[in-house]
Write a structure and sequence with these properties.
binds uridine-diphosphate-N-acetylglucosamine, 10-stranded parallel β-sheet, alpha/beta, binds calcium ion, single chain
Length: 451
């Protein structure tokens, strides 16, 4: 199997008008990854060694995305949308390079798995020339039907071309196929367009191959893997399926999710075992969580690395560049960005830490703000290990607080504080006027009763 070469051809020349979008359909995203990206990932999972993307005119953005994901992907323009077989032939140059296996996929069908594609390739390795990915459904309207004669696949008939008897068939064509590389151009070249839509249908190669005595087969695939996306509702449905799969994968790998349906992952989220995730947590791109981490409810996390035994939230917002060392804590209503939180350090309440480092075991009090931006430039704050920052302090960057230093509550700190020092940064020492409160309260009460 490994010795066999494989080209994947991804059809993406559809206009996607039902998305009502300025953006090509295959660039819409599921779990933060484009539909095209998901399809390319699946082909990589099936061991495809080359990728050819077929797109319509003006698909510069599709080309860029394909090149970014799969270096060396070739790109082919289908001038006129004359059908799926015509679309595949737009990638003739790629096919002519010569591959053992060819996988044909749709850019708008992102949930197909590498395992399914690999199973199809295995049939090619066993000597089958055309493998159709089929599914069974109680509602076959609109799909091509798999026509079997004496239990063997002999043709695929598009819905519009079916007679009444054929229309009753519930075994349908999912659209995706695996085709023997050496046979592909011959078969595709024999496809005509004498049908209801006047299009060159890719599934016609099934009948052509069968007539030539080549082996053709359907493998049955779960319907959700073949779900094509045409509008935003289907996009959301595919997102839901993807998220469910991912939740299950994590749970089976040792991650606890109390309310799985409320936790949303990105395509690249990594989480270690014995990590517990409370309800309503959102993971954006670029998050890596180690083992034994506790992520409490309503936290929003992106571009962050969280080490073992750390605790996040509830209601924490971790923005890109956040790194939490072992056993550190970021608590409720805290926001961090480009921040390294040292081992065992605590940032527990109502705090903003940006462009900063917090030393091991430092304690950052409630309401502390690193003032990192002057409206033009960003500056850094460094807090030493075991330092204690009193509540409601403003640390005006650039500034460094030494190890074990104490910052009095309510301070505005504009200059560096050395190790082991105590710093007060309030405008005045506290003033106390004995009995003054009594006088003010009396006056206010009198005003109230005079009304
Ligand atoms: C196709 C199958 C049908 C199957 C169904 C499953 C054909 C002829 N029919 O129908 O048997 O049941 O999928 O969903 O293949 N595309 C191009 N250029 C073209 C035409 C299509 O790039 O000229 C692309 C589209 O962007 C799309 C894919 O090919 O990604 C499938 O085309 P679509 O028109 O959606 O085919 P269906 O009518 O759904
Ligand atoms: Ca379709």
């Amino acid at each position: 199997m490994q010795a066999r070469t494989c080209l994947s051809i991804i059809l993406a020349a559809g206009e996607g008008t039902r998305m009502k979008s300025a953006k090509p359909k295959v660039l819409h995203r599921i779990a933060g990854r484009t539909l095209l990206g998901h399809v390319i990932d699946a082909t990589a999972g099936a061991g495809a060694s080359a990728t050819a993307v077929v797109a319509g005119h003006g698909s510069q953005a599709v080309m860029e995305e394909a090149a970014a994901i799969s270096r060396g992907a070739s790109f082919h323009i289908q001038d006129k949308r004359l059908g799926t077989a015509h679309a595949v032939l737009s990638a003739r140059e790629a096919i002519e390079r010569g591959y053992d296996d060819i996988l044909i996929l749709f850019g708008d069908t992102p949930l197909v798995t590498g395992e399914t594609l690999l199973a199809a390739r295995q049939r090619l390795a066993d000597g089958v020339s055309v493998v159709v990915m089929g599914f069974r459904t109680g509602e076959p309207d609109g799909y091509g039907r798999l026509i079997e004669t004496k239990g063997r696949l002999t043709a695929v008939r598009e819905d519009k071309d079916c007679n009444d008897e054929e229309r009753k068939i519930t075994f349908c064509n999912g659209g995706l196929m695996a085709v023997s590389g050496p046979a592909a151009l011959d078969l595709l070249g024999a496809v005509g367009n004498d049908n209801a839509k006047g299009e060159y249908y890719l599934p016609d190669i099934v009948e052509i191959a069968a007539r030539r005595g080549l082996r053709v087969e359907a493998i049955e695939v779960q319907f959700e893997e073949l779900l094509g996306i045409n509008n935003r509702a289907e996009l959301a449905a595919a997102e839901a399926i993807w998220q469910d799969r991912q939740r299950r994968r994590f749970m089976l790998a040792g991650v606890s999710l109390q309310a799985p349906g409320t936790v949303h992952f990105s395509h690249d989220t990594k989480i270690g075992p014995d990590t517990e995730i409370e309800p309503n947590v959102w993971f954006g791109p670029g998050v890596t969580v180690a083992e034994r981490v506790r992520i409490r409810g309503f936290s929003h996390i992106e571009g962050a690395t969280i080490a073992a035994g750390a605790e996040v939230g509830p209601f924490a917002r971790l923005r890109p560049g956040t790194e939490m060392a072992e056993g550190s804590k970021i608590g409720n209503f805290c926001e961090t960005k480009k921040a390294h939180i040292g081992a065992g350090a605590k940032v527990n309440h109502l705090t903003y830490i940006g462009d900063a480092t917090v030393g091991a075991k430092a304690n950052v009090g409630a309401g502390t703000i690193t003032c990192n931006y002057d409206g033009y430039n960003k500056y850094e704050t460094h807090i030493g290990s075991d330092a204690f920052i009193g509540s409601n302090s403003a640390l005006v960057a650039p500034v460094t607080i030494g190890d074990r230093a104490l910052i009095a509550a309510g301070s505005v700190i504009t200059r560096d504080v050395p190790a082991d020092a105590l710093a007060f940064g309030r405008s005045h020492e506290q003033t106390v006027r004995e009995g003054k409160a009594l006088e003010i309260n009396k006056r206010n009460a009198a005003r109230k009763s005079a009304k």
